[in-house]
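dumping the sequnces here before i forget
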Amino acid sequence: MTALGKSVKYVFIGKITLRNQLAYVADFLVRSLFLLLILYIFLQLWRTTFQGEGTELIAGYSFKQIMWYLVVTEAMTLACPSLCTRIEEEVKSGDVAFKLVRPISFIAFHYVEYMSEAAIRFAVNAVLGGALGLLVIGPPAFGAGLLWLPVAAFGGFTVNFTVNMTLALSAFWVEETRGLEFVYHKFLFTIGGMLMPLELFPEALQRIGHWLPLQAIVYIPAKTAVAFDWTRLPAMLATQAFWIAVFGLIAVFVYRKGVKRLNVNGG
Amino acid sequence: MASIVVQQLGKSFRTKKKREGFAGSLKALVRPDYEDKTAVGSISFKVEQGETLAFLGPNGAGKSTTIKMLTGILHPTAGYAEVLGCCPWKERTKLSYGIGSVFGQKSQLWYHLPPIDTFELMSRIYELRRGDYLQRRDQLIERFELGPYLHTAVRKLSLGERMRCEIAAALLHRPQVLFLDEPTIGLDVVVKQRIRELIRELNREEGTTIFLTSHDAGDIERLCERAIVINYGRIVFDDRVELMKRRFLTHKTIRLVLEEEPERVELAGVSVLEQSGVRLALSVDTELTTIEAALSRIMARHRIVDVTVEDPPMESIITHMYGYSGKEELAT
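..and the predicted 3d for all of it:
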């Protein structure tokens, strides 16, 4: 069977995950209510900040841009499934066995599952966040950024998957991985640009941020949407592609090492 | 031709030793103690194509570890194995097209979707030709009587219905070897019986090699020709099930409800396990007498309201067997 033929199975896995996830749409909606709360709090905070500064722009961003930036980053962050929890559970319960006895790639299977789930959650969050944004902030001036947002979000989710997969695969050694995930999330919240664009950080922190993969996850997609710049787009997408390649290779390496010493529980 | 060849296969795990108390836990953080635990010692056996093998042993004996090595999930620490000509842990993907597996306590079906969707997914995963898949699917639906709940979400199925779907899903790609890990666990008698019949039919008609682990004596008696018993990671018995029964199933239990309270029961080869009013439980030594003879002697004296004949649990047979040969073999 050709590589194209083989990839059909992953497309189908993606489709079936999407269908399975539809059962959880009500659950996603409830979770998305949290998004509304976060956005409301930041709305107040940024309004006060802009009033205090007495300027129209902070680090090149207007109040409206900052708020729409937050809508995108929060919608993406809340859309990411917890890969560490999933793989840790699979190893602990022994369900990992079912993935390993099939003619499928463990990492590719999880990737399509992750992306399908993230796509549904992101759509739900975007609708809710967008509705709130339109009501409270007013219509955004995304322009071409709106067209490139899905591409950059796809790249961002993929980078997040590869980094998370690398962390989650440590379950093959230690079984408890959520501590690592917790620390990673905190970095993503801060230096990853989830709470505010990297341009608002002190110079030194900005420089560090630009050398880390974290910027590729939510900062690049959100910036693409709210402050679209044709000249910077290729570099931003190349940054995402670079980190996907780096962490993709690391994940494959860790998987190959880990699967040899995997201890499948149960039975 | 052998489907499975196992040569001095062994697996040991390095685990952290837990120390007692809070101080012990703190010490373990600074200087952890490790111990090597042997899950499978050094086992060797062969399974011919089309054979039905029961792979038995008490909990923790190494059965599941062996299955996981033979399906390529675990890498052994010693020895070699070949399943359908493939080294499982080196050629796992290639092997996966030729084997099927059902783990009784785990589900491979998508919880919120009907079984038909999982079947469809399996057809894609195993890259089945559309025509072959549809023909096979319809055949399995008919044979396993899945029609009525094929379009019902898995979460709404009973355990028996779900298990039939699990086995059907594992058979869609026509595996040459089927690994069944406790396939009848938690099922009622009727469903168990039906599942055994189906697996037996499959073995007869398609020549599928069956590698079964179970604690259910019925599964072993009705399904398998040969049994391997493993304990403490070593093989303590490897022969025909008939022989195992003759050698080790020497006792059966008869449970009776009589019309009137019985007097003292004194029959050769029969001992009283329990007596309470009109209820009586007897242990029959089948080497000294037959069930038929014991029952006819009781019927000659009492009127019987109800009777059941039970085999001792598999665990006790295995413990019995281990007492016979295991210790000596392990000592060497």
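The two ends of chain B are 31 Å apart (CA to CA).
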